[in-house]
Each structure stands twice: as structure tokens, then as C-alpha cells.
Amino acid sequence: MRGINTLMTSAKDVEIKENKLWVYLQDGRILGVPLDHFPKLLNADTESRNNFVISGNGTGIHWESLDEDINVPLLFSK
Questions:
Q1: In whole angstroms, what is the distance from residue 70 CA to residue 47 CA?
Q2: How far are the Cα atoms of 2, 3, 22 from residue 62, in angstroms, in the given order?
Q3: pLDDT tens per residue, range 9-62
Q4: Could you tell me whether strands 53-55 and 60-63 are parallel, antiparallel, or unpaired per DSSP bridges?
Q5: Could you give phi then psi for residue 42, rounded to 5 degrees?
Q6: Contact, 77 vs 37, CB < 8 A?
Q7: Which residue, among 37, 31, 41, has the nearest Cα to 66 in the 3D structure?
Q8: What is the pLDDT of residue 1?
Q9: Pairing of strands 60-63, 68-71
């Protein structure tokens, strides 16, 4: 089984708009995932949604105030 190349799936920025989580990847791709997959983000206010940290060299996204963590490589399975 082939592994996921985390270098190719590393986030450099995140944006939430149009009811989607948009993840801008280091390799130039943009991944859009419906917020329905992330109820805490879906129900959060704008300030909380915008208060995130990209961690693990771009492999994770963390929202402290929402207690939400997203593993970027796993977004490809959504």
C-alpha cells in the first residue's frame, strides 16, 4: 500500500467561505471540503473560525477555542 506524501499535502493557508473549508497546499493545489464534515467549524462564529494554527509542518490545522484538529493528509479521503 502506498503512503501519503506529507510534503505534497502540507497546508500553507486555510480559509473558510461558501460553507467550505479551503486548504491551500504547499504544492499549489487548493482543496475544498464541505463544512458538514466538521460540525464545530460549521456552527462556529467567524472570529473562532479564523483563529487557527497550522502545525506539524503543514500536516495539521488546530482551532484552540473550538477544540478542533484536522489532519491535512486525511482530508484527501473525505
A1: 18
A2: 27, 23, 14
A3: 899 999 999 999 999 999 999 999 999 999 999 999 999 999 999 999 999 999
A4: antiparallel
A5: -60, -40
A6: no
A7: 41
A8: 36
A9: antiparallel
